[in-house]
Amino acid sequence: MKFNTKVIHAGVKPDPQTGSVMTPIYQTSTYAQTEPGVHQGYEYARTQNPTRDVLQTNLAALESGKFGICYASGLAAMDAIIKTMNPGDEVLSTNDLYGGSYRLLRAVYEKFGIKSRFVNLSDGDLNKHLSKETKLIWIETPTNPMLNVVDIAAVCAQAKEKNIKVCVDNTFASPYLQRPLELGADMVLHSATKYLGGHSDVILGAVVCNDQELADQLAFIQNATGAVPGPQDCFLILRGIKTLHLRVERACKNARKIAKFLQSHPKVSSVNYPGFKDHPSHKIAKAQMEDFGAMVSFDLTDDSFESAKKVLSGTKLFLLAESLGGVESLIGHPASMTHASIPKKERLEVGLTDSLIRLSIGIEDVDDLIEDLETALRNI
Ligand SMILES: *Cc1c(COP(=O)(O)O)cnc(C)c1O
């Protein structure tokens, strides 16, 4: 099955009892047994739920993996991965990442003895950063919000030599644009809240992997610690995925035009978009991604927070909100919103200034979106 067919059909079959074309929402906490221990494979809904099973199978197929394990949120999925580690182990992560992922590693797991280091992996040279304790490499690519691109295959090849696991947070790209397992990663993480759901109406997370032992561990943690998604949330993600390819394709097309518009605007000093030929990781992006994504960030010639605020509150179609990947365009201020939990000094080191503005470009008419930005930029 090709990708555009998988989004609609992989793991999804009409309900055997009724023929219902859409996967039913099995809104139940428990399942009847005919005698103790005799049941149809379902005992209790924290452990198994048929709606969740369909989503897990579908997600595994989209990421070219064998196993999908879903959690209550993207961070709950990451939490499950970190729980496979032991005190003394170290996570080596990209230094330009989702603020909540940074917070989980630093503010939750450090006190349990799992250490984290945050480095720039965009040069593809992993060896200089590794320590004896490194057990997991955490990659976000394209990075959030600077849109740097990490060479997944290069990092995975070096990690494999040392028996270190690699997880790629594929939230920004979506499996339509990039499939890390095909490039050698051990795990893929999704905040399905974003592109997979695509309609800004649900929170859910997932991990996909190929290794049976790892999948068993992750499923054990899913059940044993209980951060499971509800069946209605699973349904909403399944429903969103059916148009993933169309939405992402259109959003990427819009992003290309908007990035060009911003680049030529006198009040904009820089635009971060891997689709530009002179972007430092354009070549890698072109090789490992189907298109360049629909996230764009930019800085202002007048780089004060005051000017940024005028733009941020001046758009009408671009809604000022956290999150990304929905059908509607969003505008955000990473320094005070998604990345507020990262200390200012560390933020500035990666170029995340107080005036940096991030766009999640949706699937509206691109001319309306450009006009909206043009009007807001007139405010400064
Ligand atoms: C939103 C996000 C997360 C966290 O996901 P939730 O579903 O909000 O818990 C993790 N990584 C990235 C890149 C994100 O954008």
Overview of this structure, please?
It contains 13 helices and twelve strands. Helix 2 (50-62) packs parallel to helix 8 (231-241) and helix 3 packs across helix 4. The longest helix has 20 residues, at 244-263. Helix 4 links the parallel strand 2 and strand 3. With 380 residues, the chain is of the alpha/beta class. The protein folds into two domains: 3-241, Type I PLP-dependent aspartate aminotransferase-like (Major domain) (Aspartate Aminotransferase, domain 2); 245-377, Aspartate Aminotransferase, domain 1 (Alpha-Beta Complex), CATH 3.90.1150.10. Pyridoxal-5'-phosphate binds at residues 73-75, 98, 100-101, 140, 144, 169, 171-172, 191, 193-194, 203, 205.
Please tag this protein with its features.
380 residues, alpha/beta, Aspartate Aminotransferase, domain 2, Aspartate Aminotransferase, domain 1, 7-stranded mixed β-sheet, 5-stranded mixed β-sheet, globular, binds pyridoxal-5'-phosphate
